[in-house]
Amino acid sequence: MSRPIKTFIYSDYPSGSLNISAIREYLARYGFQTEDRGNVISFLELSNDSLTSIAEILSGAVVDDISSDITKLSVPNSAQVNSEMNRLLGRENTEGVLYDGYWLERIFHRALSERVLLELGDDYLHLIFTSRLFGTFEDRRYHARVVLTGVPSLISTSGLIEAPAKPREYYFIKGGLIQSGKEVGVLDEMYKGRFVEYDDPKISSILCSYALQAVFYHMSGKAFCDNKACCLYNSHWQEDVLRVQYEGMPCDECLELIK
Ligand SMILES: [Zn+2]
Known about the structure:
Layout: E1 6-11, H1 20-29, E2 34-39, H2 40-44, H3 48-60, H4 78-88, E3 98-100, H5 101-116, E4 124-130, E5 133-138, E6 141-145, E7 147-148, E8 153-156, H6 157-162, H7 168-179, H8 185-190, H9 203-220, H10 238-245, H11 252-258
Parallel strand pairs: 1-2, 1-4, 3-5, 4-8
Antiparallel strand pairs: 5-6, 7-8
This protein binds zinc ion (ZN).
Zinc ion binds at residues 225, 227, 230, 232, 250-251, 253-254.
C-alpha cells in the first residue's frame, strides 16, 4: 500500500455540474491531500507546435468504428485537426466523439512528463476530469467508461451519462418506439430520475465516489470492490450508480484499507 502524498486535479471543459471543490472536500474527509490545477491545457503551458501535435494525436485516437481496436493512430486530415484544436481550447464541444481511453492517457502522460516530470512517481496522483467520452476495447468492441486508472487517471463526465446502462426495459420500449416511427423523447421523461442526465446536479456527488476509486486504485492496486453497497463497486447500470455512487461511502473493508 502506498498512499499518494498528493492528488493533482485537472479538468478540461467538463459538465457545468461538476464542482471540483466538492471533490476535494470529499477526498479530504478520507485524509487525502489535493491540489486543484485548473484547466489541464492551460496548466501544461504548451507551445503552438506541441498543441498542434496533441491535436493531431487526439484526432487519430477518435474511434470511428467501435468494432476495431486502435492499435495504430490514424492520420487525420486538417479539418479534423482544426476541430480538435478548437475542442482543446474550449471553442467546440466534444459531444458525440468517442476516444480510445488508453491513447488519451498516453497523450496526457507525455504532456505531463514534459511539464512536471518529477511528480510522475508513486507519491503523486494526477486526476483529469474530462468532458471527452472515452472507451476501452474489450470483447471485440469499444465500451464507454467512466473512469480509467493510470498515469494520469481519467474521469469522464459524459462517460457517467453514456457508459452505465439504463434500465433494460428502457431499451426495449425505445426499440418499439423507433420501429413504429414514434418520438423517443417521451421515454426520457418516463424514466427521469432512474439515470444520470447531462448537467444533472447529482454529478458532483457521484464523481466523488469515482475520484475515491482512482485514489484507492493508486494506493492498493485494487480496481473495484465486490460489495454491492460500496461506492467503489463497479456499477454497470445507471440505477446502481444512483444507488451506490451517489452520496456514496466505502464499505468497512475498503475504509480500513484507506485508513
Ligand atoms: Zn468496498
